[in-house]
Write a structure and sequence with these properties.
The chain is α/β, with parallel strands linked by helices and 303 residues long. It has 2 domains: 213 residues, Rossmann fold; 83 residues, Alpha-Beta Plaits, CATH 3.30.70. It contains 10 helices and 14 strands. A 6-stranded mixed beta sheet has the order 6-7-8-3-9-10, sandwiched between helices. A 4-stranded antiparallel beta sheet has the order 2-1-4-5. Strands 12-13-11-14 form a 4-stranded antiparallel beta sheet, sandwiched between helices. A hairpin with a 2-residue loop joins strand 4 and strand 5. The structure holds adenosine-5'-triphosphate.
């Protein structure tokens, strides 16, 4: 029998006074990791809160593990572990108190696994929340989410503000959680290295819209940087997939998306010489999307 998709968002919109999340489509199957990337204020947390049923969309549909949200959120939430930066814990209580609390609600709580996680993440369950550092707090919420062994993990910025060693511990535990082949993860991060490292799919959000959503290989493969020489100062061909173009004397550096092997010939035909075609990292793609979107907005304002 086919498993329902981990998450299926279709045409999801949400309007706030100064922000509009518009027509978001995003889906991925169980057993995979979706990385949500976008600059500050792009709408990542808003989308995640809707996936968790914490807020309802104005329009569109959201299904999580086959459950319609927010309508079936009680059934869905038994199978979702949520970790967000602003998660509230009881300051004057210990980690052990929170573990008991979660154990009392979820039958799926795995105490042996919780103890393994505490050891691996170097946490003392007798410590009170108010005495925890930021990294220890994130690790404690990770234990509370993972030891329930949920089918879907939703992590909003799990690695923000962590030192490199703790970041690696958190990412390693996320990867360990995937040993169960039907477990899925939706996570957002500003750290493109994290997303590039563990995601199967990438969705890029900018200004409340999905710019691109595809599997990681297609996403990364679609972007290229071409190095060109232009000794006769010919105009660049007018191609819709040119996202950025920078000139330094006779040398041009052009960033394109939806790259295909016929593209260099189009520059050659226009009288330019292609000296190199390079792949981009997710970080470079991030910057290119944001810079070209900002340039478009400035052009519209100026015209
Ligand atoms: N409850 C709310 N009322 C009004 N505006 C809101 C509310 N929640 C979010 N917004 C606005 O929606 C926009 C998107 O916010 P959101 O937190 O989803 O972005 P984000 O991509 O998670 O950003 P960051 O990376 O900075 O965390 C912001 O402009 C924010 O001010």
């Amino acid at each position: 029998m086919d498993l329902p998709l981990a998450i299926q968002c279709e045409g999801v919109s949400k309007r706030y006074p100064h922000f509009h999340l518009q027509n978001v489509d995003l889906s991925f199957e169980q057993g995979t990791v979706m990385g949500l990337v976008g600059p500050n204020g792009a709408g990542k947390s808003t989308l995640m809160r809707m996936v968790m049923g914490l807020i309802g969309p104005d329009s569109g549909s959201i299904r999580v593990l086959g459950h319609a949200m927010p309508h079936d959120q009680i059934a869905a939430k038994r199978h979702i572990g949520f970790v967000a930066e602003d998660m509230r814990l009881y300051e004057s209580e210990t980690i052990a108190f929170h573990m008991d609390f979660v154990r009392s609600i979820f039958d799926s709580w795995d105490d042996d696994y919780a103890q393994v996680l505490l050891r691996r993440l170097d946490l003392n369950e007798k410590q009170k929340v108010k005495g925890l550092s930021h990294g220890q707090r994130v690790k404690a919420t990770l234990v509370l989410a993972l030891a329930r062994r949920p089918s879907l993990l939703v992590f909003d910025e799990p690695t923000t503000g962590l030192d490199p060693a703790v970041r690696k511990e958190v990412l390693d535990e996320m990867m360990n959680a995937l040993a169960d082949e039907t477990r899925s993860i939706l996570f957002s991060s500003h750290n493109t290295l994290d997303v590039e490292q563990i995601s199967d799919y990438i969705t890029f959000i900018y200004g409340g819209r999905v710019v691109e959503s595809s599997n990681k290989e297609d996403f990364l493969d679609g972007w290229r940087r071409l190095r060109l020489t232009n000794p006769h100062n010919r105009p660049l061909p007018d191609l819709p997939n040119i996202k950025e173009a920078q000139q330094s004397g006779q040398i041009w550096t052009v960033t394109v998306n939806q790259y295909d092997d016929a593209l260099p010939a189009q520059f050659t035909q226009a009288g330019l010489t292609v000296t190199a075609v390079e792949r981009l990292t997710l970080e470079e793609i991030f910057l290119s999307i944001v810079l070209s979107a900002k340039a478009n907005i400035q052009m519209k304002v100026a015209s």
